[in-house]
Amino acid sequence: MSTVESLLIANRGEIAVRVIRAARELGLRTIAVYSELDRDSLHVELADEAWNIGPPPAAESYLDIDRIMNAAQSAGAAAVHPGYGFLAENAEFANAVTNAGLIWVGPPSEAIRIMGDKTSSRLTAAKAGVPGVPGTFEPAEGLSEIENFAKEHGYPLAIKAAHGGGGRGLKVVTSAGDLAASYESARREAEAWFGRSEVYIERYLEKSRHIEAQVIFDLHGNGVFLGERDCSIQRRHQKLIEEAPAPGLSPKQRKEIGKRAIAVAASADYVSAGTVEFLVDSSGEPYFLEMNTRIQVEHTITEMVTGIDLVKTQLRIAMGEPLPFKSVETHGHAIEFRINVEDPTADFAPTPGTLVEYQEPGGFGVRVDSGVTVGSTISQYYDNLIAKLVVWGTNREEAMARGIRALSDFHVAGVPTTIPAHLSILSTEAFRQGTHDTRFVEDQMCFGDADPTSHPTLPEQEEIQERSMTVEVGGKRFVVRFWAPVTESPEMSGSGPVPRRRPPKLERSTTSGHDTGVITAPMQGTIVKTYVPAGTHLKIGDPICVLEAMKMENEIKSPIEGELIDLRIQPGDTVATGSVLAIIR
Ligand code: MV4
After folding, report:
1. Distance from the alpha carbon of residue 166 to the mean position of ligand 1, in angstroms
2. Residues near ligand 1 with C-beta < 6 Å?
3. Does the 134-203 domain belong in CATH 3.30.470.20?
4. Which sequence spans correspond to the domains of the chain?
5. Which CATH superfamily is domain 113-132+210-331 in?
6. How is domain 6-105 classified at the CATH fold level?
7. CA of 460 relative to ligand 1 center, distance in Å
8. Nearest-CA residue for atom 7 of ligand 1
9. Sign of the dihedral defined by the CA atoms of residues 351, 353, 356, 357, in that order
């Protein structure tokens, strides 16, 4: 126990930062690993030392067991924490770590193996007396088996990857006509995602809630249920918002879920932190779905309501310490908002780029776990989660109000994020009442915009960037946000704004430069003349200045009527494309 003095964190981003913080508090030497792309990232900076494990593709760095084990050896690491994703649920990696004589901060490889195979996890749960969603316990042999299942149970049914999880490759079949195509498609997707094409079948429970139970086990056979989380708010099977406790669960239901979760984990001789997923149908019955054998992204909300540092507890358990509690109480309500770099108006498509502005919220009840700082670049190589905003309140009502406040105080520019999507979910009646189910995002939210003509002033492919500036009008300060063409000027390069294809449509009412009267240079050039001083009242078409470029003079005219409140140029100035010339209100 006392020999453990160093920990290698086999991960990147916010979870690497999270683990480093916990390890530091326990007095451990922290060893980071990084791909060439992450040389200057936050987790590398925060660790005591850091080792290069290869090129950007995860397969050649964060997923490369040999390279990580080499780093562990070179650094003299005593223990390895895998975080989530990458190799966290890889039984072979767990074995490699323990075979090298190091401590694996996680469950035994056998427990990972049992739960990683979704049909064997369903069987293990059933043997422990915990019912799963009605379905099969072995991979489907062929189409006729699924047809027979449909005859017995009816539609809709779900076809899932046997070696998958998290909804990837999940196909919902609503009628016999779609069955054959869905079966083939599910097998192809399973092969593509997990390298194994086997699928199994479940009845698809439509009006259900996705509830997961946090458990933690020590090496001495003690296991404790740490409360549940509601994870029904997902899009494309990626969680967006999680909360603890689950709204609307009775103490009796909660107790039953806890009992079932402990039974499932115990039947696999589980050790460390783990999550048992359930679907709770409209009658309130919890059905086992799958077990995740890792620390999860949303462990933070359980920490906020229990007061227990789960990562630190994982580390202590790995060092052989017994659990210091037999049961826990929860206090108040916590909600996590995942801040992803993606465009909610374009079906949540990831949008790589650089964080031009990055300011986290703070204050009572606000926690931000992030892996970035201003200037960080988000690549297409890894997960697009940059931060988790976690709010705590004495009750759900207060947590929601705090969430709205903190989301509004979270300023990110340079890339679009899920922040506006969160604010719009928080404004819905279904979420406020806590009555939402797993169909919520698909059925009730409309972030996309089917009408491409709805932002006529912004050509789709023009490279533009969001910018803001402060102006004073009559002694009062205003912030003007606008979109302008990409500029190459020195003041804008380096850590400056970064081009993106188009603005999030959610914000389009405030994003047009013309609407706000921000006059920008249409091209690079020299100002040869100004016509009017600041304070002048202008009509549409009134000339403001002359810009010379390539020996041609261009008259810049006012596109709107209003007062010229700011003239930012004078004759002789050279200006870059997109730089601000004047502001009219
Ligand atoms: C289901 C389901 C309904 N019936 N399985 C998605 C993530 C994965 N861990 C399990 N998931 C689900 N499995 C059966 N048999 C509903 C979900 C589900 C879901 C489905 C569609 C849209 C959003 C969802 C959110 C949570 C769970």
Report:
1. 8
2. 133, 158, 166-167, 202-205, 208, 210, 232, 234, 237, 277, 279, 289-290, 438
3. no
4. 6-105, 113-132+210-331, 134-203, 339-445, 462-501, 518-584
5. ATP-grasp fold, B domain (3.30.470.20)
6. Rossmann fold (3.40.50)
7. 34
8. 167
9. positive
Which CATH code fits 518-584?
Answer: 2.40.50.100
What is the number of the ligand 1 atom nearest to the C-alpha of 158?
A: 15
Yes or no: say if 544 and 538 are a contact pair by the CB < 8 Å rule: yes
* Count of CB atoms situated within 10 Å of the CB of 6: 18
CA distances from 460 to 48, 86, 260, 374 (A): 46, 35, 52, 27
- Matching fold, domains 6-105 and 113-132+210-331: no
Q: Are 283 and 74 in contact (CB under 8 A)?
A: no
Which among 237, 276, 297, 440 is the best mutation to test ligand 1's pocket, defined by most ligand atoms within 8 Å of the CB? Answer: 237
Q: Which atom of ligand 1 is nearest to the CA of 204?
A: 4
pLDDT tens digits for the chain (585 residues)?
A: 446 899 999 999 999 999 999 999 999 999 999 999 999 999 999 999 999 999 999 999 999 999 999 999 999 999 999 999 999 999 999 999 999 999 999 999 999 999 999 999 999 999 999 999 999 999 999 999 999 999 999 999 999 999 988 888 799 999 999 999 999 999 999 998 899 999 999 999 999 999 999 999 999 999 999 999 999 999 888 899 999 999 999 999 999 999 999 999 999 999 999 999 999 999 999 999 999 999 999 999 999 999 999 999 999 999 999 999 999 999 999 999 999 999 877 888 888 899 999 999 999 999 999 999 999 999 999 999 999 999 999 999 999 999 999 999 999 999 999 999 999 999 999 999 999 999 898 888 877 443 333 332 333 445 666 677 777 777 778 778 777 766 544 333 333 333 333 333 333 333 333 456 888 888 888 999 999 999 999 999 999 999 888 777 888 999 899 999 889 999 999 998 888 899 888
Tally the C-alpha atoms within 13 A of residue 574's C-alpha that lie toward its C-beta.
8
Q: What is the CATH number of domain 339-445?
A: 3.30.470.20
State the residue for tokens 């892996």: 371
Which residue in 414, 373, 585 sits closest to 499, CA to CA?
414
